[in-house]
Amino acid sequence: MTRKKPAAEPRPYHHGDLRAALLAAAEAELVERGIEAFSLRSVAKRANVSHAAPAHHFGDTNGLLTALAAEGYRRFVAHQAAWEDRGGTDPAARLIESGLGYIDFAQRHPALFRLMFGSDRPDYTTPELDKAAYAAYQQIEAANAAVAAAKGREADSTDVEATWAIVHGLADLSSNQRLYRLGTLPAKQRDAILRSIIARNIPG
Amino acid sequence: MTRKKPAAEPRPYHHGDLRAALLAAAEAELVERGIEAFSLRSVAKRANVSHAAPAHHFGDTNGLLTALAAEGYRRFVAHQAAWEDRGGTDPAARLIESGLGYIDFAQRHPALFRLMFGSDRPDYTTPELDKAAYAAYQQIEAANAAVAAAKGREADSTDVEATWAIVHGLADLSSNQRLYRLGTLPAKQRDAILRSIIARNIPG
DNA sequence: TGTACATCAGTGAACGCGCGTTCACTGATGTAC
DNA sequence: TGTACATCAGTGAACGCGCGTTCACTGATGTAC
């Protein structure tokens, strides 16, 4: 044994990046216990910090959940942007792939997705969260605008709503295991079906 | 004053229909406090009954929420069935109107809708809930089958998934106030847009 | 019809627990001079 | 470079509260005979 026991390492009084550590602990708590059993004390315990420490960074539980939701939206936007690029240069293909990214995010992070779209606890009047959530909407809007522009048309609000709703519906139902058949298919086949469903909502 | 004070009326030891009264109180609690702050004691208090009484009917909190979710699905199915009939005899029109009923239910009962589609607390292995939730799926399936039959086709799983997802997406986003523009329109105009969006997902 | 008894529905006191919040504190860091 | 001081980040004990659960109980209802 040449290595020190990790527990014996001197623990500095100041954490270094407690804010980020608390967000990570909060996400893990959300995954394990669900938002209904979420508590600030459990988060602090998971981050190995006294239960009063989070107040310095987030105020209260809703402050922490608001910050976590904002981080969720930023990751959500980045995730979709990465998928969108797989669509190459065709605007419709880009919109469809971006939608698959939306669905993939919901499947990979159901607890976070639920916090973002199915909870009243995050406070959307907070500028940080408002901005992050709005950016997610703008992404869909921009992808639709590109499709319209390629056809020499104006962007249409109804088209934006249709593509958002179809992608959101597929994402929410599949992250809640409601689309049983799709869950049983191999990924390639499933994605092909999802693409065909999204495509119905893009005017030809 | 010829009427007795209501509070002075003799209160029978046995409630009569405490089960139904507790379900109503639970729904009101869900609306007012949200599922995250839901507690059995508050429900009992609201129903004017001792806090240990609900255990006789539902076991624990999840038992009560499971029963409430099942009742929610039954009302959800009835609500859609009523709307479906507005579609007259054309199967596609019936499917579309049924979808509007789905969306209308979510807008009128956001807390119940969230319990049904965005919570892990109801126990879907309970036969009562399993049956009620499955009936909601079968309704969409049957409406799709009627559309296919009218065209001399077989029912297609992908069509069922597409119509469910579009309707669910519109319902979830609008019950969470995310479709801002639609919320500002007069009902007739909004419904026309919703119909046109649903229609994109029904093969011609 | 009357009585005895089992079963059921609801009561209210008691318990231990985890929660958010407060508060005086301590250790670490940054800055003025 | 050194010292003094303000500010910041995290501690740990204490508090009161609402929660779920348990338990002996009581009042009401249903049934056997």
Q: What descriptive keywords fit this protein?
A:
DNA-binding; 2 domains; Tetracycline Repressor, domain 2; homodimer; 204 residues; elongated; 10 helices
Helix content of chain A: 55-70%
| Protein structure class of chain A | mainly alpha
Shape of chain A: elongated
CATH class of the largest domain in chain A: Mainly Alpha
Assembly annotation = homodimer
Number of strands of chain A: 0
**For the residues shown, what is the average pLDDT of chain A?**
93
What is the first-to-last residue Cα distance of chain A?
Answer: 68 Å
CATH architecture heading of the largest domain in chain A: Orthogonal Bundle
- Number of separate domains of chain A: 2
* Low-pLDDT sequence parts of chain A: 1-10
Biggest sheet of chain A, in brief? none
Walk me through this protein's architecture.
2 copies of one chain form a homodimer. In chain A, 39% of the residues are buried. The first copy, chain A, starts with 17 loop residues before the first helix and ends in a 5-residue tail after the last helix. Chain A has 2 domains: 49 residues, Arc Repressor Mutant, subunit A (Orthogonal Bundle); 134 residues, Orthogonal Bundle (Tetracycline Repressor, domain 2), CATH 1.10.357. Helices cover 68% and strands 0% of the residues of chain A. Chain A contains 10 helices and no strands. The radius of gyration of chain A is 20 Å and the shape is elongated. Chain A is mainly alpha-helical and 204 residues long. At the A-B interface, α8 and α10 of A face α8 and α10 of B. The structure holds a DNA duplex (33 and 33 nucleotides).
